[in-house]
Design goal:
It is a single chain. It contains nine helices and no strands. Helix content is about 80%, strand content about 0%. Helix 3 runs antiparallel to helix 5, helix 5 crosses helix 6 and helix 5 runs parallel beside helix 9. With about 170 residues, the protein is mainly alpha-helical. The model has no long low-confidence stretch (mean pLDDT about 85).
């Protein structure tokens, strides 16, 4: 949550915004740096399946697809948190905004059960993170799920880039 808000608070964002790099480079640099950290954590989590595979036989395909699903969900959360961090210079406000964004996309699936209209249910099911993650946890990769995840990542990275670009022109 402090990816950009801490830069603004410490006044190093001014240095970033006046440097000869584009706003897109700033966003992608912060985004991919965080993704590398998440990827490293997921790789560390594979120690347990590797040790267990010496004792038990299991399929690696569904395990790898599930890890890929967790990585995609984390990628969406990173994009949302980067956007929340770009909106303010206060880390606490950025944290609260991140929680609101993350929980709102997560609980859209819960709203699915409270509507009787089939078209409303279909729309809420399509924009539910639970639905798309469940397909990956089952071990199946679906193109609509990948499109959903990559669309959210693109949307929030684009919004972050727009916030950074607007702050360059306003200062």
């Amino acid at each position: 949550m402090k990816l950009l808000s801490e830069e603004k608070k410490m006044k190093t964002f001014d240095l970033l915004s006046t440097s000869p790099i584009t706003s897109l480079s700033i966003v992608l640099g912060k985004y991919f740096a965080t993704l590398v950290t998440i990827f490293a954590l997921i790789c560390v989590s594979f120690i347990y399946p590797l040790v267990s595979s010496r004792v038990f036989d299991f399929e690696w395909g569904p395990t790898l697809v599930s890890a890929f699903g967790i990585f995609l969900v984390a990628s969406v959360y990173v994009a949302m948190n980067l956007f929340a961090s770009s909106l303010t210079d206060n880390g606490l406000i950025s944290f609260v905004l991140s929680i609101v964004f993350n929980l709102s996309i997560w609980f859209v699936g819960a709203l699915n059960e409270s509507f009787d209209n089939p078209s409303t249910k279909a729309v809420l099911e399509h924009i539910s993170l639970n639905t798309h993650l469940a397909g990956l946890i089952e071990g199946t990769i679906r193109t609509n799920g990948l499109t959903f995840f990559f669309s959210l990542i693109f949307l929030f990275c684009f919004l972050t880039e727009r916030v950074i670009e607007s702050s360059r022109w306003s200062d």
